[in-house]
Design a protein that fits this description.
Length: about 725
């Protein structure tokens, strides 16, 4: 059994006699050392872990922020590049950059999900709207409308999208470009639903677009209502012009003038801003557009009155209204239109007089006025004055394309084709799609024999005005000039598609096929020509001769019968007409036709022979004998005529020979060829002419001992 005292802790039993030390007195504890707390290993590891995780999270956030910033920067650069390319007229590059922005957008979405930053999806949604709108706009600019509509429809279904009215406007514009005007109106109306009361300008824009769609549908009543609503929300010159246009179609002159007056009272930004300022340039562009629309509206209002007695009063009314505004360019343009209105009423002198007054009053209009004067003188065929005024116009504005065209026309009229061609080329260099310059350039090149260049010019022109018959005709003519007959036919067929009822075109194509040896195609073309012009004698004769050659006498008879009605005195046609009846065995009818031909031309031996032949066949012997006598008389008469003509011909030849001999002897030496130029010693005898008192030459002697050189002629009988 153990024995001993109890320990100081009270619970511990003393088991040995070793001295016992006190922990508390030694200042020792399991968790304390010299009064300093000893950290736990687990706590230390936990602290280090937290610190590491915090640092890792910070690095992750920094990486996310940098990546996000980099991607957003790339998106911004791509959108800016796409917008710039669109402004510069490069649709393919604009679409390429927009697609790059879409790739960066997908990368942005992947980055957000990768870093578990779903709370930043609002940033993605904002960027997504910008990128997708840019991509859809690029597709629209490249005329890839279906792709654009798919993008807009997805954006329209997004409930978080606050710009649905803008999307509906874009969809409506696409349908306008596709000529689906009813669908466009429907989406413009959808867009109005999303607009609040404080969005007056946007409402005006939607109403304006709807009005334009109704004009395309020729529904001017609804168009006028839409433009009226647009003017209520936000009055603009552009909407006012289209309202005047609708009134000119539907309303009275008073209503149209009222709309025009309201248009002139619209307040616009007329502050003067420096040219270098971008805003200033925009204001200048807006001012020019307003002047253009006001000028057009003024012409519509003034030209509405068709009465020859009061038409000038309408122009005076509009002129007074315009002079009260600040649209000086529109005023000048209208005054020129006022002068040209005299041309419509065949008052050329007054037109010229008014244009000259405008030129004296305002030199800023010198180029435009001189161009119009040049054009008037061209119409009057006064090419000298036309050229003079075109040169004045070019002195004030060397880039005046109509003046260059007028000058080139004057030069071409003077057959100065090289200089005229240079004028037209200069005009095209300024305005590449100038139709007048291109057409005249093609004509001048054709006159110079430059058929390939002329063909290239007309081919470019056909792309600008694909339904112009003049251009297609000139293309075909150029090919004909270079000998390409088959290509000529192809281009004439294009022309037929434009003018399918022109008989002269069918006739030309028929002749071309005949030249190629294809009579079947020629028959089709001549038949079409006859269908639209049955009085063309050349076509009727060709069809009759064709059927006569192919033994289709019934058809030939019809054509020659029509030809005889057109040319009633043409005995040859009647002979062919009678031949058709003869080949059909209708001898009596053929005889009647031949006799009719004989009465028109009683000296036609072929006709008389046919009458004799048929009379013998059908037993009309008395008639046969009569025409035999007639034939003999005609033959005798023709023989006597031939003998008389032969005698006259011989006498004339003899007289010509004698006259030529005399002329060779007595003619002016300057007219005689220099036949003695290689002879060194040429002896010229002295000629002595002996005369009687009546001044008739009897003898001509060379030197004193020479023989009379005219001894073989009875000179007194023919030379005095």
């Amino acid at each position: 059994m153990f024995s001993g005292r109890k320990s100081s802790r009270g619970s511990r039993v003393i088991t040995s006699t070793r001295p016992i030390s006190s922990y508390s007195r030694a200042k020792y504890h399991e968790n304390k050392l010299h009064g300093i707390a000893r950290p736990s290993i687990d706590n230390l590891i936990e602290q280090l872990s937290k610190q590491y995780l915090n640092e890792k999270e910070v690095r992750k956030d920094n990486l996310y922020s940098n990546t996000l910033k980099h991607i957003k920067n790339n998106i911004t650069l791509s959108i800016m590049a796409s917008t710039k390319a669109r402004a510069q007229g490069n649709p393919e590059i604009a679409l390429q950059k927009a697609k790059e922005a879409k790739k960066f957008l997908d990368e942005l979405q992947d980055t957000i999900f990768k870093f578990n930053k779903e709370e930043n999806m609002n940033v993605f949604n904002e960027t997504k709207y910008l990128v997708m709108m840019q991509l859809a706009d690029a597709y629209t600019y490249n005329e890839m409308y279906e792709n654009s509509l798919k993008i807009y429809e997805k954006l329209a279904k997004d409930k978080n999208n606050k710009m649905k009215h803008s999307i509906e406007l874009c969809i409506g514009n696409i349908y306008m470009a596709q000529h689906k005007y009813e669908d466009a109106i429907k989406h413009f109306n959808y867009g109005l639903v999303y607009l609040g009361d404080d969005m007056s300008k946007l409402k005006a824009r939607f109403h304006y677009c709807s009005g334009m769609a109704f004009i395309e549908l020729a529904n001017f009543h609804k168009a006028m209502a839409e433009f009226t609503e647009s003017m209520k929300h936000d009055p603009t010159i552009k909407a006012g012009y289209h309202l005047v246009l609708c009134h000119s179609v539907l309303s009275s002159i008073d209503s149209m003038r009222e709309a025009f007056s309201n248009m002139l009272h619209i307040k616009v930004n007329d502050n003067k801003i420096e040219e270098s300022d971008i805003l200033g340039n925009l204001v200048t562009i807006e001012y020019r557009d307003n002047c253009r629309f006001i000028g057009l509206a003024a012409k519509i209002v003034a030209s509405k009155v068709k009465n020859n007695n009061i038409w000038e009063e309408a122009y005076i009314y509009v002129q007074k209204k315009l002079t009260k505004t600040k649209y000086y360019d529109a005023i000048n343009e209208f005054e020129i239109a006022y002068a040209l209105a005299y041309m419509d009423h065949k008052m050329t002198e007054k037109a010229i007089e008014k244009l000259k007054r405008i030129k004296q009053k305002d030199t800023s209009t010198m180029s435009s006025v001189s161009t119009n004067l040049s054009y008037i003188y061209l119409l009057e065929k006064d090419f000298e004055k036309a050229n003079y005024h075109s040169e004045i116009a070019l002195q004030y504005d060397k880039y005046n394309v109509p003046a260059l065209v007028n000058k080139g026309y004057c030069l071409a009229h003077d057959k100065n084709f090289e200089d005229a061609r240079d004028c037209f080329l200069e005009a095209i260099g300024i305005e590449a799609n100038c139709i007048e310059a291109l057409y005249n350039l093609g004509l001048v090149s054709k006159r110079l024999g430059l058929y390939e260049k002329a063909f290239n010019v007309f081919e470019k022109l056909s792309n600008l005005i694909p339904k112009s018959p003049e251009v297609h005709y000139e293309l075909a003519e150029c090919l004909k000039m270079v000998g390409s007959e088959r290509q000529y036919i192809n281009f004439m067929n294009r022309l037929i598609n434009v003018m399918p009822t022109d008989p002269s075109l069918w006739k030309r194509i028929g002749k071309a096929w005949e030249k190629e040896g294809n009579e079947n195609q020629a028959l089709l073309c001549f038949t079409e020509s006859y269908k639209y012009s049955p009085s063309d004698i050349d076509v009727v004769k060709w069809l009759g001769e064709y059927h006569l050659r192919h033994h289709n006498y019934e058809r030939a008879k019809d054509y020659f019968g029509n030809a005889c009605l057109i040319c009633q005195k043409d005995s040859k046609l009647k002979l062919l007409y009678g031949q058709c009846y003869e080949m059909l065995g209708m001898m009596k009818e053929a005889l009647d036709i031949y006799e009719n031909a004989y009465h028109n031309d009683q000296m036609n031996i072929s006709c008389i022979k046919k009458i004799i032949e048929i009379s013998q066949k059908i037993g009309f012997q008395s008639k046969c004998n009569h025409y035999v006598e007639v034939l003999q008389e005609i033959e005798q008469y023709q023989e006597s005529q031939q003998d008389e003509e032969l005698s006259n011909f011989n006498n004339n030849n003899e007289a010509q020979l004698i006259t030529q001999s005399l002329l060779n002897f007595t003619g002016n030496i300057s007219n005689i060829p220099n036949r003695w130029q290689n002879v060194d010693d040429l002896f010229i005898p002295t000629l002595t002419a002996n005369k009687y008192n009546d001044s008739k030459i009897t003898t001509v002697i060379a030197d004193q001992n020479s023989k009379d050189i005219w001894e073989d002629y009875e000179s007194n009988s023919f030379l005095e």
